[in-house]
Amino acid sequence: MRNVFGKLFGFINGIRKVIVNLVFFIVLFVFVGFLMSGEETIEVPTDGILVLNLNGYIVEEETYVDPVDEFFNQALGSGPSIPEVLLSDVIDSIEQAASDERISGIYLNLSSFMGAGMNKLELIGNALSEFRDSGKPIYTYGDYFSQPQYYLAAHADAIYLNPLGGMMFDGMGGNNLYYKDLLDKLKVSTHVFKVGDYKSAVEPYIRNDMSDEANKINRLMSLM
């Protein structure tokens, strides 16, 4: 009986060693491949087109990912849940393409573009305008154009939309909340010190609506 259990234990232990060794070599090969994989050298042909696939959100700094998680994500072929594109990479690519004689134009693919803040859109738009000023065309394609997508598309020489696609524009707008009535009901007193007519930061606490001065300055700012 003892021999039977001994042989069974030896068999199970052998299987365990095989599995552990197999997993070890798989991880080792993946790790070596990760270390050996460098940046691919791209051959730029004459009269080439710069393809800009803005896949994800435009950010100034990528979200921090733990190196161990990044290693296993690459090993398993999975990436971050929300793709991110560095603003500096986009602008640098456009600026380099403008001065590169091998690049004859830009193909801007916005199908997977998820959006960006207005300041980032303006910076990319300015870079695209400078690229066009160099005499090179920009062609844009999208399956669907949201407002941020069309803002960038408007800088192109030609815009192509999927025949089954559409557009959604919300326009630029804003709103303020005013608390004077609420504060009066709660018997909360406010003490405001301000100088000048165009100091509207404290208006929500002392008014129930927007002053004419604040309305005027907001309209002027919307035209900038």
TrEMBL record:
InterPro entries: ClpP/crotonase-like_dom_sf, Peptidase_S49, S49_SppA_67K_type_N. GO terms for molecular function: serine-type peptidase activity. CDD domains: S49_SppA_67K_type (cd07018). GO terms for biological process: proteolysis. The keyword Ribosomal protein does not apply. Residues 131-218 form the Peptidase S49 domain. The chain crosses the membrane at residues 18-36. It comes from the Bacteria. Keywords: Hydrolase, Membrane, Protease, Serine protease, Transmembrane, Transmembrane helix. Pfam families: Peptidase_S49 (PF01343). Signal peptide: none annotated. Belongs to the peptidase S49 family. This is Peptidase S49 domain-containing protein. It comes from Pseudidiomarina aestuarii.
